[in-house]
Amino acid sequence: MKNPVAENVAKFLKHFPPFSSMTFEELFGIANLSKIIYLEKNQILFKGGEETHENFYVVKSGAVGLSLTSDAEETLVDKCDEGDILGLRPFFAKNHYLMTAKAREDSIICSIPIAVFEPYITDNKEVLKFLLQSFASHTRNPYDKEHSGKLISENMIFAEHTTDIQYFQPIKYTKNPVTANLDDVVMYIAKTMSSSSIGSVIIQKDQLPIGIVTDRDLRSKIATGLFPITITADKIMTAPVITVPENISVAEAQMLMLKYNVGHLCVTKDGTDKSQVTGIISEHDVVAAQANTPGMLLKQTRRAFDAKELKVVRDRMTELIQNSIDKNIPVSHITNIVAEINIAITRRAIELAIKEMGAPPPARFVWLNIGSQGRKEQLLLTDQDNALIFEDIDSNEYETVKSYFLVLADKVVRTLSNVGYEMSPDDVMANNPKWCKSVTDWIKQYNIWINSPEEKTVQLSSLFFDMDFLYGTPEIEQVITNNIEKSMQQNKKFFAYLAADALKNPAPLGFFRQFLVENDGEHKDTFDIKNRALEPLGDAARVLALSHNLVDFTGTYQRFKKLAELEPENEELYTNCADAFNVLMRFRTEEGLISNSDGRYLNLKELSKSDRLKLKNCFQPINEIHDLLKNRFSLTYIN
Q1: 31 close to 14: Cβ distance less than 8 angstroms
Q2: Mean pLDDT, to the nearest integer, of 109-126?
Q3: Helix/strand/coil (H/E/C) assignment for every residue in 76-123
Q4: How far is CA 108 from CA 13, 35, 587, in A?
C-alpha cells in the first residue's frame, strides 16, 4: 500500500537540488522514513548551543530564520525558504549548533534522518558534487545564482562576510609526515607513533603511498587480538590511502573524509598516488581549521573564564585576519567580523570584572569604546580608548557609586591589557575619573566640547564622537546621543573647529608628488600611513557626518557611503574616499601582520612599483575632501 504523504514529499524534493539528481524511488524510500513537522510562527526548530539532531531539515512551505544570540541580542543571519536545507551541521562538524532556527511564519518542514540520506552522498556522484560545490561556494544551490542562498549557514555568523574565510581557505596540515615500508613490523611503527605523538604513518613502496596505518587500525586489529603486534605493516594497513593535492581547502578535506569514511588524507605533489608524499591531513586538522572561524571564536569568547583564554581568541583572530587578507576578502567585510569579536571580548571582560567585584553594579551604566574601537576599525592590536557612563543617582551616593565603577573599569582595562590591547598613552580609559562619570556630568562635558570648543581640546574631544555603546543600558545611550544631536544643530563654531582640526594632518605628498617620509627618529625614512592618510580621511568623515546629524554612523567607510547617499552632487568624491580608506587600511594591516606592529609606518622601499602607485592614488581623494572642508566650513567662526 502506497504512503500518500511520502509520495507527496518525494515529489516535492524532486524539484530541488541535490534531490533532483536522485530517482523517485530513492526519494520515496527517504520520504517513507522521514517526518513532517509543523511549526507555528516563532516556534524553534533547534537552538544555538543545542546538540545536533539526528535529522536535517528541508523547508516545504513557510520560512525559517537562522539567528545568532549574543548577550541577549538576537541577530538574524539568514532566512530559509521553500526547498532550502538547514541543520546539515552534523555532516560537517559533530559539535553543537551555532545558530537558532526559528519559524518566521507558520511553516511545514521535512525532517530527514541523516543516517538514511548519508549513503546517497557516497553513492551518488551528483549529490556529492552538489554538496562539494555548495560547501566551497557557500551557497544552497550553486547552479542557481539568483536563488542561491546559504546551504549550511547555521555554521556561520555573518554569512556574506565569511564565505572564503571559513571554508575556502587552504587547510593547514603536517608537512613531511612519518613513513614506513610494507615489511616494517607493526610494533616498531606503533612505538614511532607513540614517541612522535602522531596518529598515522604512511606506508610507501618505491617512494609512493600505497596505504596508511592509523590509531584506528591499531585499536581494531592489534588491540583486539585479531593480529599479533609482530606482524608487518602490509597485513593491517588501510589501502589504498586517499590522496589529495596540496592547498586543498577545509571544505574539500571534510567532504572527502565523509565520502570515504576515513580520518586521514595523504597529501601528494599532484594529488595522486603516483607522486611524492608531502603531507598528512587528520580529522584534528579539520577541527583546528574550524577553531578559527568567526562563530567558534565568538563561542570561545562567551565561555572564557579569564584574560588568558580571551588572549587565545584574540591571537586566533589575528590568524583569521591574515587568512582573509591572503584571500583578498574586502577590508570592509574583515572589519565587520573583527569588530564583532573585539566587542565580544570587551563584553566578556566586563562580565568577568562584575563577577570578580562580588557585588552587582549599584546603578545602571553603559560602556563606550571610542576612537578606532568606537569606529570599529581596530584590525590590529592598538591602544584602548574607552569610557563609562552611569545613571544619575542621589548626590550623597555619588562618590560611592563612582568608586565602584572606577574599580570595575580598572579590572576591565587590565584584563584587556593582558589580552593584548595596550593601555591608552593619553589615559583615555574608563578607570580614569575624568572618563567615568554620571549621565548629567557627561552631558555637561559634551556640551562644553560642542558649545565652547577650544583648539587645544578639540583633538581629544573628537575621539568621543567616534563612539560605540557596547554594554549596558540602552536608555543611557539614547539620552547621550539625543543631547549630542540637539547641541550640534546649527553650531557653526563647533564644526569650524572640528574642520580646522581635520585639516592639520601633514600632507602625504610633496610639491613634486614625492612621498613625505619621517625625517628623523626611530621611523626615519618611513611613511606614516596613519597620520598622513588614514586620519585625514577619518577626521573629514567625522565632521561631515556629524554636520548631517549622523550620530549612529561612526565608521569612516560607513560614514562616507552614507554621505554619498545624502549628497548626490558629491557622490563620486565620497565613494572615492571610502574606497581609498579601505585600500589604506589593507596597506596598514598587511604591514602590521608582517612586522608584528600596529602597521603605522610603511617602508616604501619594500613596496612594489604598482603598490606605491596604488598608495599614491589614494591621496587625490584626501586633497579633494580637504578642499570641500575648506569651502563648507568657514574658519572665521573661530574667535
Answers
A1: no
A2: 85
A3: EEEEECCCCEECCHHHHCCCCCCCEEEECCCEEEEEEEHHHHHHHHHH
A4: 13, 10, 50
Q: CA 434, CA 26: separation in Å to the nearest integer?
A: 71
- Please report which helix (H) or strand (E) contains residue 117, including its range: helix 114-123
How many Cβ atoms are within 10 Å of 198's Cβ, its own excluded?
16
- Interatomic CA distance for residues 304 and 297, integer angstroms: 10
* Cell matching residue 66: 537562522
If you count them, how many residues does the chain have? 639
For 100, the grid coordinates are 537558532
The average confidence (pLDDT) of the chain is: 85
**What are 57-90's pLDDT values in tens digits?**
999 998 898 876 543 445 666 778 888 888 876 6
Sign of CA dihedral 311, 312, 314, 319: positive
| 90 grid coordinates | 552534523
Are 189 and 222 in contact, with CB atoms under 8 Å apart?
A: no
Q: Which residues are 259's β-sheet partners?
A: none
Structure confidence by residue, pLDDT tens digits, 131-175:
665 554 444 444 443 333 334 444 333 333 344 445 556 788 888
Distance in angstroms (rounded) separating the CA atoms of residues 371 and 355: 27
CB of 335 within 8 A of CB of 585?
Answer: yes
Burial of 313 (0-12, 13-18, 19+ CB in 10 A): buried
Q: Which three cell numbers stand for residue 14?
A: 524532486
Q: Return the C-alpha cell found at 556.
A: 569612516
Half-sphere exposure in the Cβ direction for 292 (13 Å, CA): 24
Q: What is the pLDDT of residues 317-375, one digit of tens each?
A: 888 888 888 777 778 778 878 888 899 999 999 999 999 999 999 999 999 999 888 99
Check pLDDT > 80 for residue 284: yes
Burial grade of 636 (CB within 10 A; 0-12, 13-18, 19 or more): exposed
Among 10, 29, 233, CA closest to 123: 29
Q: In the chain, pLDDT over 90 holds for what percent of residues?
A: 45
d(Cα 266, Cα 271) in Å, to the nearest integer? 8
